[in-house]
Amino acid sequence: MADTIIAKQLRTEVTEDGSLRLSLAEQELSPPTGDGIVVEIAATPINPSDLGLLLGPVDPADARQEGDALVFPIPPQRMGALAARTGQSMPVGNEGAGVVVQAGPEAQALLGKTVALAGGSMYATHRAARAREAMVLPDGVSAEQGASATVNPMTALGMVEVMRAEGHKALVHTAAASNLGQMLNRICLADGVPLVNIVRSAEQVRLLKDQGAAHVLDSTAEGFGRALVEALAATGATLAFDAVGGGPLAGRILGAMEQAASAGQAFSRYGSTAHKQVYIYGRLDLRPTELAANAGFAWSVSGFLLTPFLAADPARAQRMRERVMAELTTTFASGYTETIGLTDALRPEVLQRYARRATGEKFLIDPRR
Amino acid sequence: MADTIIAKQLRTEVTEDGSLRLSLAEQELSPPTGDGIVVEIAATPINPSDLGLLLGPVDPADARQEGDALVFPIPPQRMGALAARTGQSMPVGNEGAGVVVQAGPEAQALLGKTVALAGGSMYATHRAARAREAMVLPDGVSAEQGASATVNPMTALGMVEVMRAEGHKALVHTAAASNLGQMLNRICLADGVPLVNIVRSAEQVRLLKDQGAAHVLDSTAEGFGRALVEALAATGATLAFDAVGGGPLAGRILGAMEQAASAGQAFSRYGSTAHKQVYIYGRLDLRPTELAANAGFAWSVSGFLLTPFLAADPARAQRMRERVMAELTTTFASGYTETIGLTDALRPEVLQRYARRATGEKFLIDPRR
């Protein structure tokens, strides 16, 4: 019989008195039964979606040490929106990978295997799971290489699946120099899908061009609007995935799609008949989304979330997962700029760096450190 | 053989030199052949959707008489968006009704009948059409009563159809004291559909309450936000049709739907799983639509246009049309505050009144005057 493991787990809590508190909690993991397993987490990435839960609306610069915990004041006007999580100590970490160190009688085959997991609570030394939730990494693929096997790969692949399912023939992507964006660029190059990449600096333009991208536009450059209409006309893209969310960008894309779709068409006061869709899948900019009245009437702006998309078609999700596993070190490779330990995540100067969400920077946690 | 009719037709033209020009043009209507008919228009309403084409972006106060025409300066920065209609003299008027005064050999049965038409070019003394396009009004229904048989009735009925087709169980409507809004209220009362009406004054609240509406909220009143969440929770409405379009209203509705959907649910950083949909079908407010980041990820904001909706399911459209004809003087009755002649429409002081788009005011043109 295996021993009970005392795992260390990173927790975030909004307290009644208006603070956000980060701490390391101990969690007892009983020896697994049935098809249960315990994975010693070796690598778990810090994704923007993790930061949303971890830090909520606080300013990273306001961190105050309180014993082993880190405490931040919450702006009083934000407490209403946090009512549902107030008073709950919540684990964090959407995905990760590590070695199976304990396994129930039905999961013995997994013992010693390196597996990837998703589903939360990964910022921990150990995590319990069921055998069917574990994706065994191919031989020679490390935990670090498998740590980001779900959020970015399945989202990027999901974009192409949505494009096909909804009858579009090309894609627009914003914040396109991100890990996810580079991945999407590789998928589109491999599958022959025209992709219009929108980034925020000349350096990011070069980065994607160097990776073979045909259309890379800098939204901060002069002439961006005209260049966007041209790229949309050239590709016929009527579908965009936007990680920025706030501000005028989503609306500018819609307006440019409308301009590209109307060019050479007879005037209609209701705009073009081409349906234009923007999915907002991230909120790098927390300001309101602004949609100018220049896109006609055949358009939608929608939120996009991976989990319900995958749940809507399990066979499709399985097919996507198999491709990710097969191309984990090529198409779906993730790069990290820094690896930190679990306790480092609670050091104010480290936190301020990983909380910046800077494109091109990506942190990995190795809880064994 | 019938005589050629010289019809007078209201035209709008964006000229190369940056003006918008309204005028009356003469149009020769040859005697109809086959199933052709000519209708002497007796009643044609001025809908907000007509004003969009008629006046484009001009300020009604800038009208300048030029012979029989009325000319307005166009702000130079708006000319780009008008490129596709520049230099074209365009007829106006989405719908109307009148008596069939000429008919081809296959349409003789329609001669003398009062019919309703839709499809443009109604601001005219006469309009040519095909027999199959004409909806013969029931006995005892006048041209005035049949003039608005398409735009408002089919749009209002379409909202309830969309609700059922997309699996929602209640509706939200803005600018709800409009002719269309009162119509929707009557449909919802008749069909037992819970409806949350949003209006902009206490007077409009009284108007709809007097017509039996259960939920009428004044968006300018204190406590509107809280009242909206309560009404959404009470009705379970996750679908809204918004005629305002610009400003924060569409986003406030989404945010309130999310609050109502999340109440009593476990916290999820991604928001509730209930899909929330706002359709923007009008643009009473031409500012950008502002969507705050408080609606989770299960939402869409989309344009809504009647014509493609009807075209998508001809059998449904036919069923809707039959109901409208049967209830034209009850559920689908339109009220007009003023009737003007075709030449009156070109008088600056009259134009400034009908161009106000004030809720509760509605103009009818009788081209026989």
Automatic annotation (TrEMBL), chains A, B:
The alphabetical list of record keywords is:
NADP, Oxidoreductase
SMART domains linked: PKS_ER (SM00829)
Query: Which molecular function term from Gene Ontology is one that the record holds?
Result: oxidoreductase activity, acting on NAD(P)H
Annotated Enoyl reductase (ER) domain ranges read: 18-365
Q: Which InterPro entries match?
A: ER (IPR020843), GroES-like_sf (IPR011032), NAD(P)-bd_dom_sf (IPR036291)
Output this protein's name. Answer: NADH oxidase
